[in-house]
Write a structure and sequence with these properties.
Helix content is about 40%, strand content about 20%. The strands form three sheets. A three-stranded parallel β-sheet has the order 1-3-4, with no helix packed on it. It has about 210 residues and is α/β, with parallel strands linked by helices.
């Protein structure tokens, strides 16, 4: 059996995403300490010692915890039956992170490409920074890209998404359904796509 556990070292984030499942008022700046990590991982490793365990570091933006946070995990909690991964917006990732991605995350990282993202108040500022980092990271590692299908996405059209997928040339593409929770709940009218419309739209993406 493979057990998957999501751990959020912080709710803080350096971007604003109108579809985010974290409520705006919950995006505080607190970051999990290494002592808290020790407590959590020791309990998880003991409880699932007879199983394969997949741990996804999520957020907020998990890279805000810093490279030393994950180096602590790499140095103390790397085990053959435990796989670690990260879901990141990539904008904080640079060469300093490469040893962590290679050794702790097995040379793979997961990010997302979404129209509802803003760096400051600008989508263009986000896109330019993200794309530059994406291309550099992709040269070194396998990348999984998640695309959340919102009303903004469907208005662009299935052929637009097909073109984006071609440009990304990622190892894996995942088309996520938008659940209006947290900040996303406040933007449901602007973003929400009923499931049957999502399914029909996804079928036209080649």
């Amino acid at each position: 059996m493979i057990m998957q556990v999501f751990i959020k070292p912080t709710n803080a984030c350096n971007l604003y995403c109108s579809h985010c499942f974290v409520p705006e008022q919950k995006k505080d700046t607190k970051i999990m300490s290494t002592q808290e990590v020790d407590t959590i991982l020791l309990k998880l490793y003991e409880y699932f010692k007879n199983d394969k365990l997949s741990i996804v570091w999520h957020g907020g933006e998990p890279a805000l915890a810093g490279e030393n946070f994950y180096k602590h995990i790499l140095d103390n909690y790397r085990q053959p039956n435990v796989k670690h991964g990260m879901q990141t917006n990539l904008t904080l990732i640079n060469e300093k992170w490469y040893p962590i991605i290679e050794k702790l995350f097995d040379g793979s990282i997961c990010t997302s490409y979404d129209l509802s993202r803003r760096l400051g108040d600008s989508y263009d500022a986000f896109y330019q920074k993200w794309w530059k980092t994406y291309e550099k990271t992709k040269e070194q590692f396998d990348i999984v890209v998640r695309i959340t299908i919102t009303k903004e996405t469907t208005q662009k059209g299935a052929s637009w998404v097909t073109d984006i997928i071609g440009q990304l040339d990622a190892n894996i593409i995942i088309l996520d359904y938008f659940f209006p929770n947290g900040t996303g709940k406040n933007n449901k009218k602007k973003l929400f796509v009923p499931y049957h419309d999502y399914y029909a739209f996804a079928e036209n993406i080649k």
